[in-house]
Design goal:
It contains four helices and seven strands, in the order E-H-H-E-E-E-H-E-H-E-E. By secondary structure, it is of the alpha+beta class. The protein has a single domain (6-170), classed as Aminopeptidase. A seven-stranded mixed β-sheet has the order 1-2-3-4-5-7-6, with helices on both faces. It binds coenzyme A (COA).
Length: 176
């Protein structure tokens, strides 16, 4: 998929080096995520392999996000699929934050989910303190469906489940 500034293409195991170098080891990037910062390239390779296997099994789609004017990926966006509902997650290298890159990528994924996958609804959650992620959902037209208390473990913040904010968007039926 291509947008004005980005290419989104299915994740490959060869992306592990770029993912490791760009953001997987960064404790600021991973602060609110469900995984700890990687310490070895092998960890990143294993994480990518799991996502690629899930995609092959039809359970999800994962794309690397590359800026058209740069050679290497700068982020990733993932759509986990259960029947006609999707759950989205995303991550971006810190050096690229604040330029609207993930909202642009998410808009393309929403359109793909609507027109190619015929999904009915997409949801996502973010840690109660993850304002940047909440803004991405808001910018892409998701509605704030409230708080889910003690719902998700974010291991870089606590060993016990934390409150998350739940966002969702209904997709109108595709025309093709
Ligand atoms: C959340 C994230 C994907 C946002 O992507 P992005 O492409 O930077 O999104 P935007 O450019 O639209 O910025 C969204 C918000 O991030 C915040 N932000 C922007 N630049 C920032 C910076 N340099 N440092 C910290 N936060 C910043 C702002 O609140 C911004 O909202 P605003 O545009 O209303 O000011 C990115 O911050 C990220 O990868 N964070 C770590 C991983 C993560 O939390 N993923 C989501 C898990 S649910």
């Amino acid at each position: 998929m291509q947008t004005a500034r980005l290419e989104l293409r299915p994740l490959k195991i060869e992306d592990a080096r770029a993912v490791f170098d760009a953001y997987a080891t960064d404790p600021v990037v991973t602060k609110y995520l469900a995984w700890r910062p990687a310490t070895t390239l092998a960890e990143t390779q294993a994480a990518l392999a799991a996502r690629i296997a899930a995609a092959a099994a039809g359970k999800s789609s994962s794309w690397t996000i590359r800026k058209l004017d740069e050679p290497l990926p700068v982020g990733m966006i993932e759509l986990r699929i259960e029947r006609d509902v999707g759950n989205v997650g995303f991550v971006l290298a810190r050096s690229h934050w604040g330029a609207g890159i993930v909202p642009e990528a998410l808009a393309a994924v929403l359109e793909f989910a609507r027109s190619d996958l015929s999904l009915r609804r997409i949801w996502g959650v973010c840690d109660i303190d993850n304002r940047a992620s909440a803004r991405v959902f808001e910018k892409c037209g998701f509605r704030d469906a409230g708080l889910r208390p003690a719902a998700v473990i974010h291991p870089n913040l606590a060993d016990t489940p934390r409150d998350v904010r739940y966002f969702e968007i209904d997709l109108t039926p595709g025309e093709d």
